[in-house]
Design brief:
- Helix 9 packs antiparallel against helix 13 and helix 12 crosses helix 13.
- This protein is about 40% helix and about 20% strand.
- It has 16 helices and 15 strands.
- It has 2 domains: about 230 residues, Vaccinia Virus protein VP39 (Rossmann fold, 3-Layer(aba) Sandwich); about 180 residues, no CATH class.
- It starts with 8 loop residues before the first helix and ends with a helix.
- Strand 11 and strand 12 form a beta hairpin.
- By secondary structure, it is of the alpha/beta class.
- The chain is elongated and about 85 Å long.
- An 8-stranded mixed beta sheet has the order 6-7-5-4-1-2-3-8. It has a 3-stranded antiparallel beta sheet with strand order 12-11-15, with helices on one face.
Length: about 425
C-alpha cells in the first residue's frame, strides 16, 4: 500500500469536522490542540459559527499563523449580519477554564495520543465532565493500520505516548459515555486497501460523542466554584465586522443611500436634458429592471416638484438658486449665473426600490431616523427626501467662471445693494 492518501489524511480529518458543522450548525466551537490553526482557518468561513476558539499548550505554534484568522478586506467592505468572534488561548487540555464551558462542539483531532494515560483521564474529566459540550469529535491513530505503512515498527510520531487499537479506543469511549452521560458513534477517515477495511479499519479512528438529554443540569451544578477558573492565557481575539453593530450598520446604510440617490439623480437629469449616461443601463440592471426606474421618475415628478434647495420649498431647479455670480462681458453688460442647486430624492422611493435598504433598515421610519443623525446625508426639512447638490452644473459653472477670469472678466459674488453701486461705477 502507498502511505500517501488522496486527499491527504489531515485534510480528510478536517473535512470530517467541516461536514459535521454543515449538518449540525453549531454556534460555539472550540478546537483543542489547535497547533497552527489549520482547522480554524477553514471553520471561520462557516458563518453559522458565532464563537470560534482554539487552545494549544504551545503558544509559539499559535502565534505563527494566528493573524491569518483576521477578517479580510471584503469582510469590512461588505459586512453581513453574521457574527463571529475568534479567540486563541495557550493552555493545557488537562486544566479547567470557565470560558470554555457550554460549547456546542469540541474537537480533539490527533491530540490524545500525545498525552500520558493519566492525562487522558484528566482530559476526559475536563472535556466531558466540566466543559459539558453538546458534541465532541475525537480522532486518534489506529494502531492496527500501522503495519500497512512502509516504515519501521512503532508509533507514527516520536511524541506519541500510545496508539490505540480499535478495541482500546472503543473501551475508553464507552467508559466516558457511561461516566459522563454521552453516547458515541465510531467511524474514521483513511480507507484501507480493497479487501482489508474490515481487518484493519480506518487509518484515523474517530469517535463522535453526543450528550444525552437531561444530563447537562446535574453536571453543571456539580462544579464547586467552577465558574471562577481561568487557567488559559488569551493570545488573540478578534470580532468580525457585523451589521449587528449599530455603527457598521449606519455606515453601510449611508453608503447605500448616497449611492442609489446619486443614481436616481442622474436618471432624472437624463430624462430632463435628453443626454444619455451609459451608467444608467447598469443602474437599471441593479434595480431589478425598468419598472423600478419608472416608479422613481413618477415619484420625483409628482406635482411638478422634483427638486428642492436645502431647507427651501420644493421647486424646479431652473427656478431656485441660493447665490449668484456677477461679471461684465465684453460689452460692459452685467451677467449672472445661479449656483448651489439641489436635487431631491424621496426616501420612500429609495426604500421601496432598493431591497438592500429595506432589508437593512427594517422600516422607512427607522431609515429616516438613522439618516437624520449622520452628517454625510442632507435631508429636506420634513425628512422625507435626500438632498443632493447638482454637482455637474456647479462644476460647469466654476469652470466657466475660471475661463472668464483668465480672459480678463471680473468675477465676484455680491448682494443687490452692492450691485447697484457697482453699476454706477461702470
Amino acid at each position: 500500500m502507498v502511505s500517501v492518501f488522496s486527499p491527504p489524511l489531515h485534510r480528510q480529518r478536517h473535512q470530517f469536522v467541516i461536514d459535521f458543522v454543515k449538518r449540525n450548525k453549531p454556534k460555539k466551537v472550540v478546537d483543542l490542540g489547535c497547533s497552527e490553526c489549520g482547522l480554524l482557518q477553514k471553520l471561520k468561513f462557516h458563518r453559522e459559527i458565532e464563537l470560534l476558539v482554539g487552545v494549544d499548550i504551545n503558544g509559539a505554534n499559535i502565534k505563527k499563523k494566528m493573524h491569518g484568522l483576521a477578517p479580510m478586506s471584503t469582510d469590512y467592505l461588505q459586512p453581513s449580519f453574521d457574527q463571529l468572534r475568534i479567540e486563541l488561548y495557550q493552555g493545557s487540555v488537562t486544566q479547567e477554564d470557565a470560558r470554555l464551558r457550554g460549547f456546542d462542539l469540541v474537537t480533539s483531532i490527533e491530540l490524545i495520543e500525545h498525552l500520558t494515560l493519566a492525562d487522558v483521564e484528566r482530559f476526559s474529566k475536563v472535556v466531558f465532565g466540566y466543559m459539558i459540550p453538546v458534541a465532541v469529535i475525537v480522532s486518534t491513530p489506529n494502531f492496527e493500520f500501522n503495519h500497512l505503512f512502509h516504515q519501521p515498527a512503532g508509533f507514527r510520531h516520536s511524541d506519541h505516548k500510545f496508539e490505540w487499537t480499535r478495541a482500546e479506543f472503543k473501551s475508553w469511549a464507552l467508559k466516558v459515555c457511561l461516566e459522563y452521560g454521552y453516547e458515541v458513534e465510531f467511524t474514521g477517515v483513511g480507507q484501507a486497501p480493497p479487501g482489508q477495511q474490515d481487518r484493519v479499519g480506518f487509518c484515523s479512528q474517530i469517535g463522535v460523542f453526543r450528550r444525552l438529554e437531561g444530563r447537562q443540569d446535574g453536571n453543571m451544578l456539580s462544579g464547586d466554584d467552577a465558574e471562577d477558573l481561568f487557567s488559559y492565557t488569551l493570545l488573540y481575539s478578534i470580532n468580525y465586522p457585523s451589521l449587528h453593530n449599530n455603527n457598521i450598520l449606519q455606515r453601510v446604510l449611508v453608503s447605500e443611500v448616497l449611492y442609489w440617490a446619486e443614481k436616481m439623480k442622474r436618471n432624472w437629469i437624463e430624462e430632463k436634458t435628453g443626454e444619455r449616461d451609459d451608467t444608467l443601463a447598469l443602474c437599471c440592471a441593479e434595480w431589478e429592471g425598468e419598472e423600478c426606474l419608472r416608479a422613481s421618475k413618477q415619484h420625483m415628478e409628482m406635482e411638478d416638484k422634483p427638486t428642492a434647495a436645502c431647507g427651501a420649498e420644493m421647486k424646479n431647479p431652473e427656478e431656485h438658486h441660493e447665490s449668484e455670480l456677477f461679471w461684465t462681458n465684453g460689452d460692459g453688460q452685467q451677467e449672472s449665473r445661479k449656483l448651489h442647486r439641489c436635487v431631491s430624492v424621496p426616501l420612500a422611493v429609495l426604500w421601496s426600490c432598493c431591497p438592500k435598504l429595506s432589508d437593512l433598515s427594517g422600516s422607512l421610519s427607522n431609515l429616516r431616523h438613522i439618516l437624520m443623525n449622520d452628517p454625510e446625508v442632507k435631508l429636506s426639512q420634513d425628512g422625507s427626501a435626500v438632498l443632493l447638490n447638482d454637482q455637474e452644473q456647479d462644476l460647469d459653472e466654476e469652470e466657466e467662471a475660471r475661463d472668464l477670469e483668465d480672459s480678463g472678466y471680473a468675477v465676484c459674488s455680491v448682494s443687490a445693494e452692492t450691485e447697484e453701486d457697482w453699476e454706477k461705477n461702470v
